[in-house]
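Q: Got a minute? One more chain.
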Amino acid sequence: MSTLTPEAKSKLAKTIRSLRERLLRDLHDRADSVSRLAVPVAKAGLSEERRIRRQRLEAWIDEQARSNRAKGETLKQAQERHRLAAEKLAAATFLNRLVVVKQLEAYQLVKPKVVTGGWDSPAYRELRDFAPDFLKDESEGYGALLQLLFDELALDLPGLFGEVGVSALFEIPTATLRAVIAALDDPELAGAWTDDTTLGWVYQYWNDPEREALDAKLHAGGKVEPHEIASKTQMFTERYMVEWLLHNSLGQTWLAICRKRGWTPAVEAEGVLDRLENNLHGIDIDPRAVQIAAAALMLKARSVCPQAHPRRLNLVASNLQLGSLPDDDPALVELREEVRRETGIPEELTDRIVRALKGADHLGSLLQVDREVRDAIREYEEARQKRFEEGRQGDLFRGCNSE
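A: Always. Here it is, folded:
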């Protein structure tokens, strides 16, 4: 049942849009401030830890810029675009984490509460009373407490609470963290945290500014670039449409399987884990959509079966960033070697399959790698058979000469 009233939904839209603007601005400014990105690293006077973090970030940005440059875009422009994309992923991931924790707390699946109440939460009060040594950093220990919770949740949701790209290289200022916590604690949003569509709406409201900018671009006669496709198509599918699709396709198939095998509709831990691990698969070109999907599945599973701990969620993002890389790029060479090592397939097939993956960023599940694989295997087998026949004929010819 939906608990997200029209008033709460409107409030959520305004809140997410406002928090997006705050997070993007503050993460960008913080990166400039602590890493001194405008100054050459040798002259930046950074501590060893910050120097390493900056070098990791710059190396990642350089690799992304090499692999994905828009038509007519300079390397510097590509680097700036990918830096902003990294900041956007870090900011969205952080907000998604807090939203998911708010929902887990509302379902009584996280105890004591950490995000709800912030610095007045039961968990922080316990920390303050029993571990005062943790209170000496900028956030008075709250950031460390939050990270401990994230690390625990990463066991089940690594795509959201684990290492997400280079998100960990961006710092959330304490003032920003306080503002986000306070905004999500607004009483007008109380109904959002027990509604299973909230994550989807958060995703859409976060993406609205980019989609609006692309609509204006198209209206002015511009074209959508491959790297902009995700922003244009990021729309949350509302409950009525999902239910119609499920009831008239997958739902009917699942019920038929249940009837055939004599299964009952009773919800048990084992049954919840079979459906998550073996029956649900998904792919998207946007890693943030995969984060949302994984979290939504876990929330739904835990809401009906609190002890559910699936070993895997079959969800992947296809943002491989291979489009503009030359064949001899180190990242592409490493990928080919890894594919050969993991699959054992010949080098000729590996190269062709990796080349076929270059459109994955914007094609996603529409990419027909299976056809390329079949064609590559067929041609490889034909070539091998031809070499075999030529070799046998050579042996016969040599045998005739010897006689």
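A: The longest strand covers residues 281-284.
Q: Perfect, thanks.
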